[in-house]
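User: Study the shape:
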Amino acid sequence: MKESVRCPVCDGATEHFGNAQVLVSHHGEYRRCVSCGAVFAANPTWLSEAYEHPIAESDIGLIGRNIRTARITRRVLRALFRNAESFLDFGAGNGMFVRLMRDAGFPFRYFDSYGPNLFAKGFETDVTTDAHVDFATAFEVLEHLRRPVDELRPLALSSDALFATTSVLPTPPPRLDAWWYYSLSSGQHVTFYTERSLDVLAEQLGFIRSSADEFHLFSHRKVPSTAIRLLVRERFGSTVFRRFQRRSLLTDDYENLAGK
């Protein structure tokens, strides 16, 4: 008897959702959870090939996305986590976000199993429950995780809050050939979330979720989603939080790295 495929978010029963060609040469089956609605690749055997080039060639929005997420994260920290002093970017990619946040005075550290770390050299760290982090980020990471609960648990146990982005599945979920976020050409996106599955993920990690568009705050305390919606607005906060700006770490980091 064939073993049933369980949901990677809630461990619920799943049903066949569709088949697709991934990375041109791979055949992938995708399944949908009948309980939380998550859609996921059942057996993504192509991941080693997909991460031969960690930054997908089609990800031409990477620079603009880092600038935007850094700007919004600064607003969230100044408004809601003013006393936070230790920070970690989980799945930090090329390190651009870490560098932008350090330039703004927030001592973020870098963690990524794939890299390449181009802009945050010298600030790498590991995720361990022995080292507490006040505030963690994981931008465009959740959709890459095959076992999101297991892979995020060490981070959840060591941090007070996690600020993440991922696009939520539309209702009803589109066909595999009808939504760009499935990213079949890169093969790196393997898990896709509904509002319900994000709540389940938060609960499994001991958090409460608040969201606005693709931004999701997982925190031990309830933060109204209206506050997150206000903070992610592009025109909000240009002068409101000016007095909470920090001294840039750029000069200190340079002197430390240069051995001066």
Remarks:
- The longest helix spans residues 62-80.
- The chain has one domain: 47-258.
- The chain has a mean pLDDT of 91.
